[in-house]
């Protein structure tokens, strides 16, 4: 019995060491050196062809059975006309905007219709859940028509499952574990290329367009936020200083390790509330031209990558150069959005590692500075509009915090004021006339 | 996204809703997907909080009244109460009021009036005013709705005179209230079909 053990260990050690050697040769070394794009693009093209075929099969099968296939509402459920202003709608037409308007019982129709439209399809709540896809990508989590699958599709899906959980997932988990251990080990020794360790975390296909505007020292880099992986993607191209709260546990260890190799700004829980302290530390860091640029996500929370929501003005008040970055993920290969109310970080990472791939496009935009007479909020909106335009995202004024919090009453009061303005001018005059007339009669 | 439909919509249910509301098959499945995404409690019904979570509805001055319109009434002894949950059928029935009126529907079923007829659209709007469901809009009820729409920007006296003038113009039988027929008469020149319709995509 004891004699068999060493031979088993020996027997197992050969495949394990072979596995690690292959890993090093084909994945880690090219990843560190930043090469190897052709294999990835071949892989992605093949996947796309398979997805199209799968969707076609489902549609054909649905036609055979004479049933309806669920069609995603990527174009919206309703056709919203260009938002007519309150004034236009109530006064009837644009030409008589200057004519007086009296209260009409029909005025409620406008509010009524807009209200029901927002119940059917609103701009905000759909940003906090994953985007729906046009064609099926062989993941159960994005399939709505599973009763239309036939034998061949099931086989394909089974094969995909095997590939993803049998090959891709263990591979990526190994990489992640190796990466994190290597990183922790190296940073305890000396501040040594944290970049390389980051790029090992998962198979990320990156398409870096417009490299010429890469952020320089002494500025702040802002980007739209979809997932914690954003940080890894940007950090694999150049070093940034991160800003955030100090955590406990594994994340805390990583944070402390990071500080040893490059200057990051971590706050204690108590310090976070003090906005002046935060602003001071940021501006001190930025003033020192030898330090790396700070990476900030002004939205404050993860959004599902179809839109850019309100930018918090804090980082725009400091007055340094802003380097905007637009990040857009391709949802066909795996959804990168982290829905923190649905799953925790570990589950999210596991589902990321068992997707086909994470494909994203990163655009570095030309640096922007605050102009004369522009306040922080206007500057923030200008930067947001530039990022949204470049990334092909919808530019929204709504706050990402609406994911969890209630909307500010100021918006409602604004609408009420607008409606009152259209009433008061005419009615007030009439009242004055009537009161004058009645007074003159007595 | 993925966990929508803790139960899927059955074909028979879709057919029934189609007959009752006139929506097409794909519209019903899409609206069901929307219904489930609003249903955070995942129990197949929507509560008032689920509606209030929509920011664009929360800032609408008439938001609360619109939400009320979705919740069906019930009777308990002699008291009218509002149920706290609305299921998908009720949701669709209310939304059906906002379907545009199509010409080919006009003569389909002369016995029952479709939910999106001009009269039913006007009834929907009338019920936004008439909170106690006595089929009359009193001065107080009118004032309440006016106050919701203007907020704090107009004084009580001015609002009162606006309400008085409106009732004066509409009231034909002299009871200082606006009945449903008087309401219809006042709005006969208004393009209700266009103002109270939402274009649902196919």
Automatic annotation (TrEMBL), chain A:
What pathway is this protein said to act in by its record? Answer: Lipid metabolism; Phospholipid metabolism
A GO term from the CC aspect: membrane
Biological processes per GO annotation: phospholipid biosynthetic process; triglyceride biosynthetic process
Q: Which residues form the Phospholipid/glycerol acyltransferase domain?
A: 219-330
> Which residue spans traverse the membrane?
16-39, 149-168, 180-209, 345-365, 418-437
Q: Keywords assigned by UniProt? A: Acyltransferase, Lipid biosynthesis, Lipid metabolism, Membrane, Phospholipid biosynthesis, Phospholipid metabolism, Transferase, Transmembrane, Transmembrane helix
Localization (cell): Membrane
Work out whether the entry's keyword set contains Transferase.
yes
- Transferase as UniProt keyword: yes
Q: Which InterPro entries does the protein's record reference?
A: LPCAT1-like (IPR045252), Plipid/glycerol_acylTrfase (IPR002123)
Q: Which GO terms describe its molecular function?
A: glycerol-3-phosphate O-acyltransferase activity
Family of this protein: Belongs to the 1-acyl-sn-glycerol-3-phosphate acyltransferase family.
Q: Which PANTHER family match?
A: GLYCEROL-3-PHOSPHATE ACYLTRANSFERASE 4 (PTHR23063:SF37), PHOSPHOLIPID ACYLTRANSFERASE (PTHR23063)
Q: What is this protein called?
A: Phospholipid/glycerol acyltransferase domain-containing protein
Q: Which organism is it from?
A: Astatotilapia calliptera (Eastern happy)
**Taxonomic lineage of this organism?**
Eukaryota, Metazoa, Chordata, Craniata, Vertebrata
The gene name on file is GPAT4
TrEMBL record, chain B:
Which protein, by its recorded name, is this?
EF-hand domain-containing protein
Question: By its UniProt entry, which InterPro entries does this protein fall under?
Answer: Calcineurin_B_homologous, EF-hand-dom_pair, EF_Hand_1_Ca_BS, EF_hand_dom
Task: List the CDD domains.
Answer: EFh
Family of this protein: Belongs to the calcineurin regulatory subunit family. CHP subfamily.
Keyword terms, alphabetized = Calcium, Cell membrane, Cytoplasm, Lipoprotein, Membrane, Metal-binding, Myristate, Nucleus, Phosphoprotein, Protein transport, Repeat, Transport
Tell me the ranges covered by the EF-hand domain, including all copies: 26-61, 117-152, 158-193
Transmembrane annotation, as ranges? none
- Which Gene Ontology CC terms are recorded? cytoplasm; nucleus; plasma membrane
Q: Which organism is it from?
A: Astatotilapia calliptera
Q: Where in the cell is it found?
A: Cell membrane; Cytoplasm; Nucleus
User: Which is one GO molecular function term here?
Assistant: calcium ion binding
Q: What GO terms describe the biological role, i.e. biological process, of this protein?
A: protein transport
